[in-house]
Amino acid sequence: MSSSPSIVPADRLDRDIYLVLEDFGARAGCAWRETDEQDADRETVLRDIISGQYSYPLRIVAFNAIEGWSHDVTEDIADALADRAAREGIDLSPALHAFIQENCSRPFGLQLALPLRGAA
Question: What is the dihedral of CA 37, 42, 43, 44, to 10 degrees?
Fold first, then answer.
């Protein structure tokens, strides 16, 4: 007797899921950002942070419910953002620059351009 393919979908939690803790300011406080299921992967989080979807990220946590682990991946994400910004020449917001400065595992070499007063 041959076996039939399962009609039960593969477990959608059997992957690494990334969540971002964001600071919404003194009045609103901090919260884990709501995100669509398909947008909770590492690459999408990196793209969303660079594009400004997260204004003031504080922490990034990754977990895999099936494998039973969770990790603070803030440093890893900061390193990846620093690499991408340097490689692609991305203009960073002051808040994103500060996030990378505070969390990168190595010195972050990008300097934000500051206006020069009185320069001719």
Answer: 30
